[in-house]
Amino acid sequence: MPSTLPPVSPNLFASDGPILTQQMFPNYPVLQPDRSMTIQPSTSREGMSSYSCTVPGIRFCSIKPEAASCKERAFQKPARQGKDCRNKKDRELHSLQDATDTMKGHEWTRRWVEGVPDDISHWASTETRKVRVTEGYTKDAVELRVRQFVPQDGDSLERSWVHDGVKKRVIIPAYAIVNLEEAKSAYSSYISCSFVECCKKILFGKDKLLWATYGAALRVTRDPMAGDKEKELLKKALQLWMAVRMTTKSTVIVGEETLGMTPDIMDDTSPLRGKIPLPPVMGAQIELVLIHQIQSNLRREMLENLQTITQANKQGTWFTTYLITFILLHNVALLCQHDASYARKHGMKSRFAREDMVREYQLGANILLAYFHYCNKGIHPFSTECKEQDLTTLAALNEQRAQFIRQTKAHIEKHRRGVIKGGKSWQKIRDSHDYENDFYYISQLFEENWMPQPTI
């Protein structure tokens, strides 16, 4: 590993943007999560409180800000807070939750309802084929071994979509992945090697604040002056971010092996027109691998480490805390975008496909924001009134990081005034409840008197 960082523009807000190269993000060992690790279901809202109920100095409840009991507890001593209002830590997990908990009636299979990986045992053929699949975020594809299987009750053998209010469907061959452990290894390797390319693909053409901040996060992972815990925390967050993105976009088959399907199998009204779709059960297997084998362990470890850093409240970790929180809050907006798109794709009348899950995302965002504003100790680092001395008190920044914060402050002012070309002011975004906007949650990082926004 090189001992120095590769050349990069000192101004991450320059017109050409940050230089994102694979050299900046080397292949790092992929965590191999416990096979038994599964996403724990969240409990009911009754009996819940925000994290702020257990953190002294936070004067609100991000779960029920209007609740009198929570308001009363906010002014109690820390030892007494939260007795009747205890939050399960799973709330925080929803800020980086997967977005593929299938809507009732849209399930691809009922084989793995508990989320425990298990290979298929009843096959219709002895022939094994190799297919290459991709979600389109990178130039590479993942190779998987597949085989025809014997369908059972609950297995979907068709792909469907809605066009002009009419549901359309097409029959798909019954193929499935032969070995889920092999698939996990293939996807883990793919994610660890491809994050930079995925990041560039998703952020291309978006606001400078987004790609500049992600670029700063990439630099920290290679900064020899950064602590090992900070670097590993950011690496896990970025790897997890990509894994979540992969579950919010349709995966298709590419290459010569198409399992007997032709590019015209989906007609011109389908979002996948001209592409080879995944067999439904195979798609369910990929989700199983990504969500319950790769995402689950990364999510919990990353958030536990984040909590350790934020509670330690050290000057040297403030910058990393900011970057992590920024990425997680942007993820919430991306998840909302996906849920709204899914609802439109399937002709649902609701704004979001799963409003209960979107509500959980928003609660998780409020908890993360409570963490961040608590760690700022009453200092507003992104305000025009914040002096260099105040910033030094809050965070031990080297000149490069301090310059990045100054550039961020200048860009934030443009957003606040609504002078960003083609964009709405942040206040208008919040007033219009534009949850899918990239900045609905991120903008709340920069509020001087932040209060949690209501959920849907």
From TrEMBL:
Source organism superkingdom: Eukaryota
- Name listed for the protein in its UniProt record: Uncharacterized protein
> InterPro entries from the xrefs?
Fungal_sec-metab_reg_TF (IPR052973)
